[in-house]
Structure to design on (768 residues):
């Protein structure tokens, strides 16, 4: 009997700590972080897979995985509950000869060669759980086949002044990659890697084994595997992506990406019903607005109770804004309570946080002294006591 | 392990809902911003540990089947249970059933093939958050033939005709009245009954052979008068909304705006499940005004909304005003239009500057898919 196989499967690197997000990711993995009122960051790559016809996704977890495991569950919200394939949580595990943590992105895939082999795929797509974007991977796969590539890397054309922050692909006219530079001081190109790699599995497999045998390697795709493949003159191509893509690795970028959703001409087009972003649903009733509420330019998810004023903000599932409370230019994560007469300006409040009566979190930039202003952050399950002041840029 | 199965009637009150049930069952009638009426009884059953439910249908049940699909949202996709559609079994001469007893005749097979000892029967238009497992305990402890779940409707001040009203003598039922407004000390049945499965099979066989069709009138009232039926009354103290006609349906939707009523229906410990549609959160534009409303996901609100229930994916354009209304999924209220005291069904398009005003005692109904 012929072995059953998948043409293309995805491996999603979801073990990242996201240490630059500070208190927000202190007790949970970054991909599990709430985004956009009702989503988690991981909903984007998972929904992209579903919408691209990829139904087999290995999710590699390592750092604080409990919430993420619970969230993924059996994969039903994304249609990833398949008889053959579907979503699988892949933590590091004890092995016969040696047992170790995932040392790097490439090593994480190396340790799961057995899982990938069980689907006998032709192609493996490597994704990360750090970005907000909508992308049809099927188009990238078609491009990969057309080019006869060994590896295709999705790239974004970034402004030249931002290029030094990224891994930059230097490409020839046919988009083949001849050089990769990690955060170059003097970039030769503006093609930034999006951390999305598509490989022919047989080639990647041999590179992973070779890389593992090299004690000097960092076992990382960007640092080791890709440069080695370029050195060996393998066929690497850059696939230009056009559309919204945002790394939400810092407090500022997380806040900005949320605020971007308030622009109705936003290129992410979250309300496009032909390419929905799926999320686990918590069976909450519609949001209730009281006679004292005042709402402007805001997104409000279900299960909320709004008596106060909300302006230019994202209010996530199951939040309460009491009478006289003011929320402006802020991201309120699920289950938070903003008590009476409390104010929140230019801030992110983590899941189940509580801002007690009369407390003030953050401040408007125009009211702050130069150089001292920034987004204020209240951590998960954190309580800001009555009448307390959390300054702009402060993280508690 | 749960010893009880559920049976839900999907078509009771179809006739009194006018155009709202023209192309759907009462069970699949949208209610409360993101639900269908049947979501409440199914969630109650699921939260009570019941895993096997038969749904008795009569006609127009395509939308109901579409809504329930895999039944995974209510956790009925289990190995030892599940959701069973029981369509009408039409014999050559008798047509489809006339009452609940006749309807239950179609469920004989379902009942015979179950092994659970007890069964709970329920309408789908009574909105509440009741724990059937507690009612079952009361039933078993009472040793009576039937347990009727009922509430003190007189106390709420609602003057609504109730299918079955029980006159009480202390804790005991003294009389059973059909289709009356409950008086002081009366208990209003909620259309939910618990009995042994074998007992139900017996009365269904007997009733059908005698040409009886109406559960409350032909069986409960008659047998009770004859002294052949012992009744245990399970008093439910929570919020009960009975959607028996267009006006009660309209008023009960708006009653959800009362925080206490809402808290009595939506409980964190016993959620109400519904089909997930994955809309984005609702967006409120600059210049919008929302006061005293319930609004579901996927809406775009630019205009003014007051004292209303707004379902998923509704668009209310700039300058439009919606007051005292129920606006169902996918409807667009264009610029400058004014809607008051209305039930606007799914996917309606109200063109710019239209003025549509109903009365609280007789709300305007805009039919599904209408363009006005």
């Amino acid at each position: 009997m012929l072995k059953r196989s998948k043409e293309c499967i995805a491996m999603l690197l979801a073990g990242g700590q996201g240490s630059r997000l500070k208190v927000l990711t202190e007790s949970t993995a970054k991909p599990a972080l709430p985004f956009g009122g009702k989503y988690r960051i991981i909903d984007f790559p998972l929904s992209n897979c579903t919408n691209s016809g990829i139904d087999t996704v290995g999710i590699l977890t390592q750092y604080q995985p409990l919430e993420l495991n619970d969230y993924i569950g059996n994969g039903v919200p994304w249609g990833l509950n398949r008889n053959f394939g579907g979503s699988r949580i892949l933590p590091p595990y004890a092995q016969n000869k040696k047992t170790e943590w995932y040392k790097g992105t490439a090593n994480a895939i190396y340790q799961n060669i057995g899982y990938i082999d069980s689907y006998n795929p032709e192609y493996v797509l490597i994704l990360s759980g750090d970005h907000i974007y909508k992308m049809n991977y099927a188009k990238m796969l078609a491009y990969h086949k057309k080019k006869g590539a060994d590896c295709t890397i999705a790239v974004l054309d970034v402004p030249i002044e931002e290029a030094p922050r990224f891994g930059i692909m230097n490409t020839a006219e046919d988009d083949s990659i001849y050089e990769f530079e990690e955060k170059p001081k003097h970039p030769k190109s503006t093609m930034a890697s999006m951390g999305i790699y598509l490989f022919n599995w047989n080639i990647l497999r041999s590179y992973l084994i070779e890389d593992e045998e090299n004690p000097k390697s960092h076992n990382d795709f960007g640092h080791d595997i890709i440069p080695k493949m370029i050195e060996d003159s393998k066929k690497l191509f850059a696939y230009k992506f056009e559309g919204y893509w945002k790394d939400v690795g810092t407090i500022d970028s997380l806040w900005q990406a949320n605020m971007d959703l308030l622009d109705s001409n936003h290129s992410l087009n979250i309300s496009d019903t032909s390419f929905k972003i799926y999320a686990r649903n918590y069976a909450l009733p519609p949001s209730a607005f009281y006679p004292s509420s005042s709402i402007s330019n805001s997104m409000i998810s279900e299960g909320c109770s709004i008596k106060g004023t909300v302006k230019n903000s994202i209010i996530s599932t199951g939040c309460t804004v009491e009478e006289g409370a003011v929320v402006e230019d802020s991201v309120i994560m699920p289950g938070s309570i903003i008590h009476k007469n409390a104010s929140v300006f230019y801030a992110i409040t983590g899941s189940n946080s509580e801002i007690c009566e009369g407390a003030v979190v953050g401040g408007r930039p125009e009211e702050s002294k130069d150089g001292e202003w920034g987004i204020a952050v209240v951590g998960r399950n954190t309580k800001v006591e009555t009448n307390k002041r959390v300054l702009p840029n402060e993280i508690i | 392990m749960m010893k009880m199965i559920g049976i839900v009637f999907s078509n009771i009150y179809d006739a009194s809902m006018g155009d709202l049930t023209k192309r759907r069952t009462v069970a699949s009638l949208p209610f409360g911003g993101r639900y269908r009426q049947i979501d409440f009884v199914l969630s109650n059953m699921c939260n009570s540990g019941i895993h096997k439910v038969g749904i008795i249908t009569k006609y127009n049940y395509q939308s109901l089947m579409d809504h329930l699909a895999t039944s995974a949202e209510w956790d009925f996709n289990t190995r030892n249970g599940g959701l069973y559609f029981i369509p009408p079994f039409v014999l050559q001469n008798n047509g489809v059933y006339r009452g609940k007893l006749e309807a239950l005749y179609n469920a004989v097979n379902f009942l015979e093939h179950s092994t659970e000892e007890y069964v709970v029967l329920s309408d789908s238009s009574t909105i509440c958050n009741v724990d059937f497992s507690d009612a079952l305990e009361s039933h078993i402890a009472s040793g009576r033939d039937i347990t009727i779940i009922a509430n003190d409707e007189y106390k709420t001040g609602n003057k609504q005709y109730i299918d079955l009203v029980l006159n009480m003598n202390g804790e005991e039922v003294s009389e059973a009245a059909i289709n009356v407004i409950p008086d002081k000390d009366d208990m209003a049945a909620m259309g939910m009954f618990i009995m042994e499965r074998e007992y139900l099979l017996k009365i269904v066989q007997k009733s059908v052979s005698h040409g009886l069709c109406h559960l409350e009138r032909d069986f409960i009232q008659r047998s009770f008068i004859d002294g052949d039926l012992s009744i245990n009354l399970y008093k439910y103290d929570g919020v009960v909304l009975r959607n028996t006609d267009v006006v009660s349906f309209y008023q009960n939707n708006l009653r959800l705006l009362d925080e206490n009523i809402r808290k009595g229906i939506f409980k964190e410990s016993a959620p109400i499940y519904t089909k997930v549609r994955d809309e984005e959160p609702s967006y409120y534009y600059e210049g919008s005004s929302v006061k005293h409303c319930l609004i579901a996901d996927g809406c775009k609100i630019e205009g003014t909304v007051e004292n209303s229930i707004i379902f998923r994916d509704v668009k209310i354009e700039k300058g439009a005003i919606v007051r005292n209304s129920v606006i169902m999924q996918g409807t667009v209220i264009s610029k400058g239009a004014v809607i008051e005291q209305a039930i606007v069904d799914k996917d309606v398009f109200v063109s710019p500057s239209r003025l549509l005003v109903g009365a609280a005692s007789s709300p305007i109904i805009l039919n599904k898919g209408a363009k006005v």
